[in-house]
Design goal:
single chain; 553 residues; alpha/beta; Rossmann fold; 3 domains; five-stranded parallel beta sheet; 21 helices; 45% helix; binds 6-O-phosphono-beta-D-fructofuranose; glucose-6-phosphate isomerase activity
Length: 553
């Protein structure tokens, strides 16, 4: 933790004093009543015009409550907020994670071998590729069966132990790329300190055939270290406590070699990464080892290439056609002007079932901040609540509220033209729902239309859809490893754009510390029959006493 005093001052005016912000405020007053029906009627080309493409992704953002003027002002806001300079600073390895005094270089993880990206005067790209090569060799050995367990059996089960960024990326990518996975290998992911998670993950596994990846940037996270310890006991028990077995059944992914050694894993079996990779930005570092084991080094590198394509799109494309910039700015528009408090991400692909959960950490841990980089309380709303489910499942649960609830919930639909599992008419049926939902949200159904269908008068209000509810449609040909990389990078950079405009540090996460610290103090209190600490409030103390009683103490 940096201890030196530092004064952060910005040349840029506070957000609400920026001229583009003021113009947007006035513009919003005029635009808030305008219906998208009108916008589409005014410009028959709108559906073709308000689109952009990059890295294999097509974005239709025409069903948003924006005009040319809105877009012009939003781009002006990005420029006035210093976004061009901040993009340069990030890609240039500057320490833009101010509170942790770190560079933010997930883009270096997918840079081609001949690129140069320097941190503290040193090119980090060769190190990235050295780790990638080691990962590839290891993955090939496990996938081919050459890497054997302690008793000589082939490894067929891989259990990733990690939490947050050391779990959500790996599990999301494993599910997303399952189509490309080696099917004679079984993958499990243990994250929760709830013993049930570990117990259920290994219930049908043979320890002699099981390899654990302990994935933790810090190698100090309570949940992960507890699960790793339990895994070691479970594994050792199968080998009569022979510690030599650990080398065959445990590998580590971390930035902390010292702690890895302390745990008993040889650093020869450790795959490193660096403090300039944030946990929630690490699925393409060695944290992605489980992904590489599942889909193989070539597919993993194809995924990295997709990430890189989107990085280049973001770095070089004018803001008016820049996917992450457009999506980030639209998010600001709803969040800060329309007062939207949530966003929904709705992938119409079963393989992306964990994508919303992944994005929750990416977005909410990055932009859930009320303090500016200068240490002042913001006077506007920052990161929205993100939620989502794959379509069409969500349609049969929470879409009602998106269509007819009192809140405005901007939606991102994600569609693919080709299915990885073509089955009769399934795919067209699935994707038709994307277009139908976006259409229904935008245009709704008027009372006249409802009446014309012969609906009884008293029922008409219930069956009216007011519409004017915004959405983006993202579409790609099919869910390939490269496309997944591009999609993740799109959201990473969109989150970055929003953080720059809000002038917050999107790369720290101090907000998770207090709860962690309090839990450490409470754990022994749950195990002791002494009076709980006087430092707690009466509610916490009462809960502790009640818990102990209920568990039979
Ligand atoms: O508690 C939050 C957090 O620090 C996340 O930012 C991170 O992804 C997760 O915990 C896991 O951390 P680690 O990889 O160090 O175990």
């Amino acid at each position: 933790m940096p201890t030196q005093e530092k004064t952060v001052t910005s040349q840029i005016a506070p957000l609400v004093d920026r001229s583009a912000w003021k113009k947007l405020t006035a513009h919003y007053e005029k635009l808030q009543e305008v219906h998208m029906r009108q916008m589409f009627a005014d410009d028959p080309q709108r559906g073709e015009k308000l689109t952009a493409e990059g890295a294999g992704l097509f974005l239709d953002y025409s069903k948003n409550r924006v005009t040319d003027e809105t877009l012009k002002l939003l781009v002006e806001l990005a420029e006035e907020s210093g976004l061009p300079e901040r993009i340069k600073a990030m890609f240039g390895g500057e320490k833009i994670n101010l509170t942790e005094d770190r560079a933010v270089l997930h883009v270096a993880l997918r840079a081609p071998q001949d690129a140069t990206i320097t941190v503290d005067g040193e090119n980090v790209v060769p190190d990235v590729h050295e780790v990638l090569d080691r990962m590839s060799k290891f993955a090939d050995r496990v996938r081919s069966g050459e890497w054997k367990g302690h008793s000589g059996k082939r490894i067929v089960n891989i259990v990733n132990i990690g939490i947050g960024g050391s779990d959500l990326g790996p599990v999301m990518a494993y599910e997303a790329l399952k189509h490309y996975a080696q099917r004679d290998l079984t993958f499990r992911f243990v994250s929760n300190v709830d013993g049930t998670d570990f117990a259920e993950a290994v219930v049908d596994l043979d320890p002699e055939e099981t390899l654990f990846i302990v994935a933790s940037k810090t190698f100090t996270t309570l949940e992960t270290m507890t699960n790793a310890g339990t895994a070691r006991e479970w594994s050792l028990a199968a080998f009569g406590g022979d510690k030599a077995s650990v080398a065959k059944h445990f590998v580590a992914v971390s930035t902390n070699a010292e702690k890895v050694t302390e745990f008993g894993i040889d650093t020869a079996n450790m795959f490193g990464f660096w403090d300039w990779v944030g946990g929630r930005y690490s699925m393409d570092s060695s944290i992605g080892l489980s992904t590489m084991l599942a889909v193989g080094p070539d597919n993993f590198r194809a995924m990295l290439d997709g990430f890189h394509q989107m990085d280049e799109h973001f770095r070089t494309t004018p803001f008016e056609k820049n996917l992450p910039v457009l999506m980030g700015l639209l998010s600001i528009w709803y969040n800060d002007f329309f007062g939207s408090e949530t966003v929904a991400v709705l992938p119409y692909d079963q393989y992306l079932k964990r994508f919303p959960a992944y994005l929750q950490q990416l977005s909410m841990e990055s932009n859930g901040k009320y303090i500016t980089t200068e240490g002042k309380r913001v006077t506007y709303n920052t990161g929205p609540v993100l939620f989502g489910e794959p379509g069409t499942n969500g349609q049969h649960s929470f879409y009602q509220l998106i269509h007819q609830g009192t809140r405005l919930i901007p939606c991102d639909f994600i569609a693919f033209a080709k299915s990885l599992n073509p089955l009769g008419r399934h795919h067209d049926m699935l994707q038709a729902n994307v277009f139908a939902q976006a259409e229904a949200l935008a245009f709704g159904k008027t009372a006249e239309q409802v009446k014309a269908e012969g609906t009884a008068d008293w029922l008409v209000p219930h069956r009216v859809f007011e519409g004017n509810r915004p959405s983006n449609v993202l579409m790609a040909e099919s869910l390939t490893p490269a496309l997944l990389g591009a999609l993740v990078a799109l959201y990473e950079h969109s989150v970055f754009v929003q953080g720059v405009i809000w002038n917050i540090d999107s790369f720290d996460q101090w907000g998770v510390e207090l709860g962690k610290k309090l839990a450490q103090a409470i754990i022994p209190e749950l195990e002791s029959d002494e009076e709980p600490s006087l430092e707690h409030d009466s509610s916490t103390n009462h809960l502790i006493r009640k818990y102990r009683k209920m568990k039979g103490m």
